[in-house]
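Escalation from tier 1.

The customer reports that the assembly of two entities below gives different structure tokens on two consecutive runs. Tier 1 could not reproduce it. I'm attaching the input and our single run for tier 2 to review.
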Amino acid sequence: MRAPFSTALAIAFGLVVLLGYFIPAPCDPANPGLSCTFLGIRVVLLDWGATLAGVAMLVGIVNLALVHWRKVRASGKERDLLSAVFLLAFLITLAAGLWFTPADVRFQRAVLGIQTPVEISLMALLVVTLAYASLRLLQRRSGLMAVSFVISALVFLLLMSGLSGLFQQVPLLREPVNVINRLPLAGARGILLGIALGSLTAGLRILLGADRPYSG
Amino acid sequence: MMQGDLIWTLVGFILTLLVFSYLFGDNVLFRLAVYVFVGVTSGYVVVLLVDQVLVPRLVTPLMQGSIEQRLLLVIPLILSILLVTKLFPRLAAFGNLSLGVMVGIGAAVIVGGALQGTLASQITAAVTDFNLQSGVLKGRDPVLKLIEALILLVGTISTLVYFQFGATAKPNQPPRRPRWVEMLAGMGQIFIGITLGSLFAGVFAAALTALIDRLDFITLVIYDILF
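Tier 1 run:
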């Protein structure tokens, strides 16, 4: 059996948290019963989970920095001087953030001064890449989904350009436009239900010990 | 323009040009902007994690909390230390215990969230669509409302069927899905295409707005510098 201790911990902690969903939430502090105790344990476990998730993220970022540090120190083709730029930006932000605290207006302004233009510019670049990708879609794949995708994209772009509001003024067109606007809900609902069913299966497989993504 | 404003405007201007250099293909200037962005964001996330998670949840209660609080934090403290061993390949196996706890709690939250947050709410919404009374109250034609609800239901079911890839194999024939499943899956493809098309239109419109904003920003900065 692979990783028996980790599996036992995962199942035990997971089941306690999961059972908490099926126990009625309101508990009377003046008359604490079993449900109050169970709810208290669940809150503590969730709190531990949040702390561990934070530490895991920290470990991930430190690992990223270490990978870049190795790339700076490597020789030959492995060497990447841009990694030094990453490390510099990382360390300066970290030092400034710890010194000034993240609530400091100057620190926030400096971070946003770099994040905002890059984020908006990357978003703007999407116009070119999306237009190019959609043009190539019909060349590469022509099927029911591709055709309905392109027609839907064109129709919704036209509606978003202001036509929707204009059509709402015409009584004869109001209902058909409403139906068209709600049509994407069907697919979205199906996709959401599919994701939920997939998550449910994956979660239950972990809680039953069939999948052990922590045993590596 | 104040000096601080000027500096950040120029930084924004340079970063925008560096990112836009990607239009000529992947190059060093684009990567420079991305490395700076990832570096700053990573540093910011670490600062936030220390300030919002580690200090209030672990450090402060351990330093200033009651005996009960301190005892309760011994386990997450040990699990956190074990998680840090993942950074060292030789000791990484010790971190599996912490990962097990995290994955177990995460799986339970995902199962609960999927049940209550998505499955229950989406099924309720699909049923509520057939409440013709609410449509009448909003001045909508009940027949049209019923047709719309039926289309949405068929769309939802056919989309789900599209992702059903189970097939039965017959001797000397490749495995195929039953004919009715194939038909429903075909309809599902149309509905998925419509949904993805509308999402594409939304993202494209947002990206276009961002492009206009950036071009306006570049023009304004050049105008300010020249005049």
